[in-house]
């Protein structure tokens, strides 16, 4: 069996796990640190420490390689993770960048505060093309999603604000620069005043990743805070009932 470790600050990385498991059979081990979510508002030092703790737990599962299903961790901690652990780490951010470079038009990035502060999308896409990249920090969305608020007046009001520049400039491509955001993709589309090409890096990764597949699919999901909301959201995101396990 190919053992793949997938991890995120909370529920968002399940969108990556879902897309991977649809197309590729393997032994998946997922850890969402929803006890400490969101990571996007934390210092780099905190993000690096928490990320290392996640890997230390998952690596006991005899992991062949890791998928960092969190843009914040990808842009802040991947260097330190690669230095400390002798394993391959795939960055979800790289997948979004790759797809944006292959599309026509400018790019609007919706992401966490930490991802925007790092300017990873902007620096690489503008450095390799003539595209203009606009970044929008969307700090409240992760909290809403973790609470199970996926639609309604409260989230619509926030999205109208976050999407102001995209709607004004009719920016052709929108990167969902946080793996939580595909969960509310329909709500995002509803608050756009035009038709945009929405890039979900999880779908890009699932389309392009290559590894030796297994005959069977096995999924184990761990979280740092197992509760009714996290269990219900996990079932909704994955499209089937999978019992969450606590790491404690």
From TrEMBL:
Highest taxon above the source species: Bacteria
Keyword line: Cell shape, Cell wall biogenesis/degradation, Isomerase, Peptidoglycan synthesis
Catalytic residue positions: 70, 178
EC top class named in words: isomerase
Keyword Cell wall biogenesis/degradation: yes
One GO term (biological process): regulation of cell shape
List of residues binding substrate: 8-9, 39-40, 71-72, 179-180
One Pfam family matching this protein: Asp_Glu_race
Pathway the protein acts in: Cell wall biogenesis; peptidoglycan biosynthesis
EC number in record: 5.1.1.3
PROSITE patterns linked: ASP_GLU_RACEMASE_2
Gene Ontology molecular function: glutamate racemase activity
Catalytic reaction(s) noted: L-glutamate = D-glutamate
This protein's record includes keyword Isomerase: yes
Membership in a protein family: Belongs to the aspartate/glutamate racemases family.
Function: Provides the (R)-glutamate required for cell wall biosynthesis.
HAMAP family to which the protein is assigned, alphabetical: Glu_racemase
Protein name stated in the entry: Glutamate racemase
High-level lineage: Bacteria, Bacillati, Bacillota, Tissierellia, Tissierellales
């Amino acid at each position: 069996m190919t053992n793949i470790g997938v991890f995120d600050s909370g529920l968002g990385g399940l969108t990556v796990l879902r897309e991977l498991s649809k197309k590729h059979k393997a032994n998946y081990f997922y850890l969402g640190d929803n006890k400490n979510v969101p990571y996007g508002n934390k210092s780099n030092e905190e993000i690096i420490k928490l990320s290392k703790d996640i890997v230390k737990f998952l690596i006991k599962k005899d992991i062949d390689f890791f998928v960092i299903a969190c843009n914040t961790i990808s842009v802040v901690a991947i260097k330190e993770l690669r230095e400390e652990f002798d394993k391959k780490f795939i960055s979800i951010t790289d997948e979004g960048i790759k797809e944006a470079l292959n599309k026509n038009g400018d790019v609007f990035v919706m992401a966490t505060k930490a991802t925007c502060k790092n300017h990873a999308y902007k620096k690489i896409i503008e450095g390799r093309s003539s595209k203009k990249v606009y970044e929008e920090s969307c700090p409240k969305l992760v909290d809403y999603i973790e609470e199970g608020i996926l639609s309604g007046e409260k989230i619509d009001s926030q999205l109208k604000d976050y999407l102001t520049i995209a709607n004004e400039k009719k920016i052709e491509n929108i990167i969902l620069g946080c793996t939580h955001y595909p969960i509310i993709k329909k709500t995002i589309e509803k608050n756009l005043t035009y038709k945009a090409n929405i890039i979900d890096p999880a779908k890009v990764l699932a389309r392009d990743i290559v590894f030796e597949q297994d005959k069977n699919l096995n999924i184990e999901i761990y979280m740092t805070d197992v509760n009714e909301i996290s269990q219900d959201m996990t079932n909704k995101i994955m499209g089937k009932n999978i019992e969450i396990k606590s790491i404690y």
